[in-house]
Write a structure and sequence with these properties.
It is a single chain. The chain is α+β, with helices and mostly antiparallel strands. The chain is built from three helices and twelve strands. It has a seven-stranded antiparallel beta sheet. The chain has a three-stranded antiparallel beta sheet with strand order 1-2-12. A two-stranded antiparallel sheet has the order 6-7. The termini are far apart. About 5% of the residues have low confidence.
């Protein structure tokens, strides 16, 4: 009598199962490697900006102590408040660029004139104090306001301004994600002092704003080169 084979012919041995698993993993690895390609990071894209053709008009409002040329695609408004403070005279204006969501703030001061300064008290609060616009202090304030960008700026470069109209001053270029990347001040050192700063009503991002800043810098330079003090 023959002994009956107890092995199931359909049942796979442990060794055979290991081989099947090995070949399956090998095939999967080869497949994945053949599908992989070199990774190349994509640069972040920004909307294309169509810039207007340059054309300038003259600002020569009666009673103002200065005149200049500004872009025809901008609008001038009276500055009734400056960071929640009332301007000390009516010659503070804004040059608005609604298509870029930006503005050039122009703040004018009379050298030797009276103004209200914020003075810090011993308790840490501030009080108003009547002071005099001393020329050296106005210049120092302009540098101090620019240097406030040091926290986020990568560089601050200043260059001397001397125009054919006898106007002098300093132009500041602030690198990095600064709120005011382009600033300047102009003066005759004896009576008139004006400070200009380009602001955008957006979160500062140097990559997205640089092309607009560079475009408007040319307009700021034209403003400076055509700027004149009026004789009273």
């Amino acid at each position: 009598m023959k002994k009956k084979n107890s092995k199931d012919p359909h049942k796979k041995s442990p060794m055979r199962l290991k081989k099947i698993a090995f070949y399956f993993l090998l095939f999967t690895a080869c497949f994945l490697l053949s599908c992989n390609s070199t990774y190349v990071s994509k640069k972040r894209g920004y909307f294309k900006i169509d810039f207007p053709a340059r054309q300038y008009v003259k600002f020569n409002r009666p009673g103002f102590p200065y005149s200049f040329e500004y872009p025809a695609y901008a609008a001038i408004t009276q500055d009734s408040t400056y960071f929640d403070e009332t301007p000390e005279n009516p010659y503070w204006i804004n040059i608005n660029f609604p298509q870029f969501n930006g503005e050039i703030f122009l703040s004018y001061k009379v050298i030797g004139g009276k103004t209200i300064y914020k003075v810090k008290t011993a308790t840490g609060s501030y009080r108003d104090s009547l002071g005099t616009n001393v020329y050296d202090k106005l210049v120092n304030d302009a540098f101090s306001l620019t240097n406030k960008n040091n926290v986020v700026s990568s560089s601050i470069k200043d260059s001397l301004i001397e125009t054919e109209n006898g106007v002098s001053g300093i132009f500041f270029k602030v690198g990095g994600n600064a709120a005011t990347a382009k600033q300047f001040f102009l003066t005759d050192t004896t009576k008139n002092f004006i400070r200009g700063a380009l602001y955008f009503d957006v979160t500062p991002n140097v990559d997205s704003l640089r092309i607009v800043q560079d475009f408007l810098q040319t307009d700021m330079e034209h403003l400076i080169n055509t700027f004149q003090w009026k004789s009273n």
